[in-house]
Write a structure and sequence with these properties.
278 residues; mainly alpha; 2 domains; Pdz3 Domain
């Protein structure tokens, strides 16, 4: 998916050159200010395509989830959660005083909240609290055992299934989801591993739906959009800066050298994304 997104980003950066053909070269040789603006096409088109994919996936899909208040038979936890004190059949009442809306939100709220986390739980009518520190968060993010939290669907007799909520999403959700993807993209490039963990959590919820391919592609395109804001050659803003310098000095850099440097940075970024995302 990373390779597809990077490839699309490269093609979008080249789009003005292919569309204008001889005119593009003429504008470049005459140091027109239209050329630096054209270098931003990759950023604009990648972000635009990501938005359209999110629009399509959001409008067409029906979201099925379990509200935390409807998990009346409690939850089941993986071994890493149990090491922190969570027990099967426990209910999670609040995280730092706030009740999670969905069961699928619980792990991300615990991991992404700053500082120590206080989780209010209840089992067999007995209420207690579990404290989660930063070291505990890292252990949860690094756990290969997924899912971390599963709602218990039936009562002890295997009857009376809990309520599953179905929700249709409209336009209002599109901007929220697009902003969330940008947040995840910024998290990816942060050196803080606590922030990078949110990307892994996003992957779990995103890839579980039948729209996985397009959701994944839109998320990865958003990553390339964020990277396009960097000053690296080969990405939109980096190419823009180089083009501005060429326009100001009225002299082009060696195309062969620029192409070599651009591909070095693109290749390095692709490998880096593959390592982090995959």
């Amino acid at each position: 998916m990373v390779v597809i997104a990077i490839t699309l980003s490269i093609l979008m950066n080249l789009a003005p050159k292919w569309m204008l053909k001889e005119k593009f070269e003429s504008l470049e040789n005459n140091f027109s200010w239209l050329i630096p603006l054209a270098k931003l096409s990759g950023l604009a088109l990648s972000s635009g395509l990501a938005f359209l994919l999110i629009l399509g996936v959001t409008i067409l899909r029906k979201d099925r989830f379990i509200e935390n208040k409807n998990a009346i038979y409690g939850l089941k936890f993986n071994s890493q959660m149990q090491k922190l004190g969570f027990e099967d059949n426990m209910k999670i009442i609040a995280i730092n005083g706030k009740e999670p809306e969905r069961v699928s939100d619980i792990l991300s709220q615990i991991v992404l909240e700053d500082g120590n986390i206080e989780v209010a739980v209840e089992k067999n009518g007995i209420k207690s609290k579990i404290l989660v520190n930063d070291a505990d968060k890292y252990s949860l993010m690094g756990s290969a055992e997924k899912p971390a939290i599963i709602p218990i669907m039936y009562d002890s007799k295997g009857e009376n299934k809990i309520i599953i909520t179905t929700k249709n999403y409209g336009i209002s959700e599109v901007a929220h989801r697009f902003g969330y993807y940008w947040h995840e993209a910024w998290s990816l490039i942060q050196p803080n591993p606590a922030l990078r963990g949110s990307v892994e959590i996003a992957n779990v919820s995103i890839f579980s739906s039948f729209q996985a391919f397009f959701s994944s592609l839109s998320l990865t395109l958003t990553f390339t959009g964020v990277l396009s804001l960097s000053l690296f050659p080969g990405f939109s803003v980096g190419n823009f800066v180089i083009s501005v310098i060429e326009t100001l000095r009225k002299k082009l850099f060696s195309k062969k050298t620029k192409r070599l440097i651009e591909w070095i940075f693109i290749s390095f970024t692709t490998v880096w994304l593959l390592i982090i995302v995959e």
